[in-house]
Amino acid sequence: MFARVVIDLKTQQLDQLFDYLIPTELEDLVQVGSRVVVSFGTMERVGYVIEITESSQMASKPILELLDPTPILDDELLEIYHYLLEHSTSLKSQILEAIIPSEFMMEYQKEVTLLNKFDDDLIKNFNKEGKWILKKSDNNSYRKLKELEQKGFVKIKTVLKPRVKPKEVIAYQFNYNHNYQRINRYPEVLDLFREKDLILRKDLLEELSVSAINTLEKNEVLIRTSTIIKRDIIHTFDKKEYDITLNKEQNQALNQIIKGLNSSKEYLLFGVTGSGKTEVYVNVVSEVIKKGKKALILVPEINMISQVARRLKSSFNNVAIIHSSLSPGEKYDQYQMIYSEEANIILGTRSSVFAPIDNLGIIIIDEEQDESYIQSEQAIYDAIKIAKIRQKFHNCPIVYTSATPKVETMYQALNGEIKLLTLTKKAVETKRASLEFVNLKDELESGHTSIISRPLIEAITSNLINKEQSIILVNRKGYATFVMCRVCGHIPKCPTCDVSLTYYLESDELKCHYCGYKKPYTTTCSNCSSNAYSQRGIGIEQVIYELKKFFPKAKIIQMDQTTTRLKGMQEKMWYQFLKSDGDILIGTQMVAKGFDFPDVTLSAVIMADQDLKLSSYNADEKTYILLEQLIGRSGRHKPGRAIIQGYDLDHFAIRALNFDYMTFYNQALQNRKVGNYPPFVKMSQLIIMGPSILTTYQQAYLVKEKIENINLTTLGPVESFIFKKGDYYRFKLTIKHQDNDVENIINIAKTFQKDGIRITYTPFLDLE
C-alpha cells in the first residue's frame, strides 16, 4: 500500500503530492487524514496523507512514523480541504495550515549531540546528557558546529517536537500510611484532603506555609506528583445574570428556527440595532444543547467576543473560545475541550469555522455583513462558505444575523433562498438616535477650519457637562493619510511597497502600513527640495490632537490596531469605557461594531463620505453599513444623537440614513442591476505578481485572453491598488462570472504560475 502525502513546506515548487510506501506494520493504522513523518531529501518532515493507493511508480521511501493514533483530518475537514483546493490558488500546505490548529502542529529543532570533547567555549552549551537544542540566538554558532561535525566532534540532527504542550503543575496526594509522629501539628491537612484526593501546590499554599509543605513532603505525609490543568481565559468583564423575557417578534423568530433544527435551512435574522437578535440565538442554542448537539457561533471581530462570551457563560458552562489573541497555550486547551467533546458551544472568529466539532446542531453567523469573515492572505477563504459546507455535512441550519445585511444576502432572502425573520422593535424601548448632518464645506466657508465641526464641539461639551460619553469614528490610522509637496505634488512613498507613507504626529515619522518601513518626517521635499510638504487627509492622531485643543481635561481612549496590539488591551479598553472611566472613545472601524455602552449618547463620524471615494462597486454598501452601525452605538439606553460630518452628504448611501435599511437596499440594488454587479453576477479577482513590470503585465494579458476564451467578461489588467509589494509588481484582473465558472478560472490561473509569476485568486473584491 502507498500513501500520497502533502509535505509541510510552503513553496510553489513542492505544491504536489509525494508517494511513500506504507510499512507492513503501519498498513492497518495509516489512513487518509493521518499525519506522518517522512524522509524528504536530507530532512525528516511532517506530511499529511491525502490519498491511499495500491500501486505507485514514484514511491521509493517508506513512511517513518505515524504521529497520531487517529487521523488529524476527518472526512469533513478533508472535504473542506478539497473544496479550498478547487476554489483557490493557495498551496496545499497553506490550506492544511489554515484547517489544522497551529497549536497542534509540530516544530523542527536542531539537536546537537556531543560525540567527543573539544577545546572551545561552545562546549559549555551542552547539558549533562551531552545535548544542545539550538535556539534562534545560537544561529551565529551554526557554521562552527558544522565544522565540528565534519571533524567528528558533534552530530547535528533535526528533531520534531509539539509546538504546545499541556500545562503540567505540581500537586500533592495525602499518604494515609505515613509514620510522621508530629502530624497533629498540622490538623488542617486532614481537613483539606477529606474532600479531595489531589490538591494543587498553589492551592495548598493558600492554607499552609512553604516550610510546612516541605516538612510534610520530606516526611512522606504528602506525596508530590504532577497533573495537567487547563489554562483558563481571563475576561475583564463581570459575570452577569440574565433574566430576559422574549417579546412576540423574538418568540416567533425563535420558533421558526427551532422547527428547522434538523434541516439544512438558512435563516436571516434581520433586526434593527438593539432588537435582541443575540437573545434569539442564545435561546436557539439552548434548544440545540437539550437535543445533545453542539453549536458553532462565529463573530467577525475579537472585540465582539467578550460581550457574546459574557452572555453565553451566564447560561452555559462548557463554552470553548477561539481567536487569535489567545496565547498558544490557551488556544491549545480550548481546542482540547473541543477534541474531548467537553465543549458543546464553540465561540470564535473566522478561523474557528474549522474547529473539529462532531454532532453540530446549529451554526450562527453574527453580523454576517462584516468583511472580517474573509481571509485574504495565505489560504484565502470565506468563513461563511466554509460554514455552508459544514451545514450540509451535519444537516443543520445556519442563522445569519444583521441589522444591515449584505445586499446579496437580502436579495437571497427576498427571493426565498433564505428564510427572512424580521425584528422591528427594540428589546429596550428607546428611540433611534437623532441625526444631524454637518457639511464641512459650509464650516470652512464660514471660517471654521478645524476638522471638529462646531455642532460636534457643542455636542461633546454638552456630554461632558452631563457626564455622558461620546464615540468618534475615524476611518484612517495615523495623523494624516499622506504628505504632499504643494510645489511639485510629490508624495513620499514606501520604497518597497510603492504606497504613500502615513504621517504619525506622536513619533514625528512617516510609516508604511504594509511592511512597517519608517523614516523621520521633514518639511523639505525630497523631489524638488522646496520647504512645502503639507499633511493631507484625516488620520486618528490628527483628530485626537484637535480634540485635546478643545477639551484638554477630557479623558480620551484611543482604540485602533496600534493601541490594541498587546494581548487583552482591546478588552481592557472596552471594559474601562463600559465602567465610565473615559469621556470620549475614538477609533477606527472597530469602535462602530458590537459595543453596548449605556452612557453613550453621542456618536459621530469625522468624514462620512471618505470611503465613497474608493473605486469599488460596493463602496456605498460599506459606507452605509459602517455609519448605520455607528449610529446604533448611541442612545441604546437613553436618548441619543449622531453627528455625520462630510462633504458629499447628498450621496444616496448617506441620505438613506434618514430612512431605513430597505431604502438603501432598493437604491443599491437598482444601481447594481444597471451595472451588472452582484447579486446579478459573481465577481472575482486575479492578482498577477512578478519581479518585472513588463513580463508581469504581458502574463496578465495572456491570462485575460484565456479567460475571455470561455466567454467571461474580464476587466483589466490594471495596476493593483498596492502596485508594488516587496519585490513584486502586481496587476489585477476583475472577472464577472457564475458559480460554476470558478474551477475553470482557477485552472487557467494555475497554468501561468511559473518562471517567477505568482497568481492569487480571490472571490472578494478590493481586499488585497
Structural description of this entry:
This protein has 768 residues and is α/β, with parallel strands linked by helices. The protein folds into five domains: 107-162; 167-229, no CATH class; 248-423, Rossmann fold, CATH 3.40.50; 434-481 and 537-672, P-loop containing nucleotide triphosphate hydrolases (Rossmann fold, 3-Layer(aba) Sandwich); 682-762, Alpha-Beta Plaits. Helix content is 28%, strand content 25%. The protein has 21 helices and 35 strands. The protein has a seven-stranded parallel beta sheet with strand order 14-15-13-16-19-12-20, with helices on both faces. Strands 21-31-30-22-29-28 form a six-stranded parallel beta sheet, with helices on both faces. A five-stranded antiparallel beta sheet has the order 2-1-4-3-5, with no helix packed on it. A hairpin with a 4-residue loop joins strand 24 (502-504) and strand 25.
